[in-house]
Amino acid sequence: MILPQLDHAPLYNQMTFVGHSRYAFMSRHMNPILRTGSPDVFHCPSEPGPHLKNITALSSSIRDELGRDVICPTINYAGNCGLNLEDEEKGSTGAFGVNSSIAFKNFIDGTSNTIMFSENRVGTSNDTRGNFASNGPSNASFHFTQTPNSQQPDTFQSTRTCPSSNDPRQPCVIVAKSTPLVNWYGGARSVHTGGVITALVDGSVRFVSDNIDMSTWRALGTRAGS
Questions:
Q1: Which tens digit of pLDDT belongs to each residue from 123-154?
Q2: How does pLDDT run across 183-201, given as a tens digit for each residue?
Q3: Which residues, in sequence order, are bridge partners of residue 172?
């Protein structure tokens, strides 16, 4: 949690990471805090999507211990989790992975040559995309299968994540649950003309063009050095 480093120590100090058997953000202790929304620093000023979503309204099984609706903040800046969901689950090549710990020494080609975060769209009020607490395509993760703002659609398993009334700037397609994880991915996306804003592992910020060569883009997405 980097909230104290972003001048939000009081918010961080309110949080407790216990209380729910599934996820901390769903607990009766944490969720009332999250209902107030995430700090503006986690949102692109140009993003028209919602800052909060009622996750229970989209998936009725998701509730806190007292049976109340779970309200989650959205986030516009996602972590580099490699090429696809399989890569993310294994923590193979990206800056982040599920239950993984990746040190600076693991960035073989240097921290100035690897993207850590990129912009990501939050979808609409009628889908679960943009959830700050979830991994996977178009949540707190993004992947390098597509170039920025690609018309190649992101892949999801239901209308909860890929609604029929979808923004054409965030294309998506529903695939079968049996689809291999290498075919699950969500790209870097923004509402800016021509590209996305990224942050490298060394802390520098770069605007990356939609027209970047695919091999160059994928090289920036791997910590393996190529």
A1: 888 888 888 777 778 788 999 999 999 999 99
A2: 999 999 999 999 999 999 9
A3: 154
User: Is residue 118 within 8 Å of residue 70, measured between CB atoms?
Assistant: no
Sheet architecture: strand order including 195-200: 141-142, 77-80, 115-119, 195-200, 205-209
**Sign, CA torsion 104/109/110/111:** negative
The answer to whether 173 touches 77, Cβ cutoff 8 Å, is no
CA-to-CA separations, 127 to 34, 49, 135, 141, 192, in angstroms, rounded: 18, 11, 15, 16, 22
The residues facing 174 across adjacent strands are 156
Which tens digit of pLDDT belongs to each residue from 26-40?
566 666 666 666 778
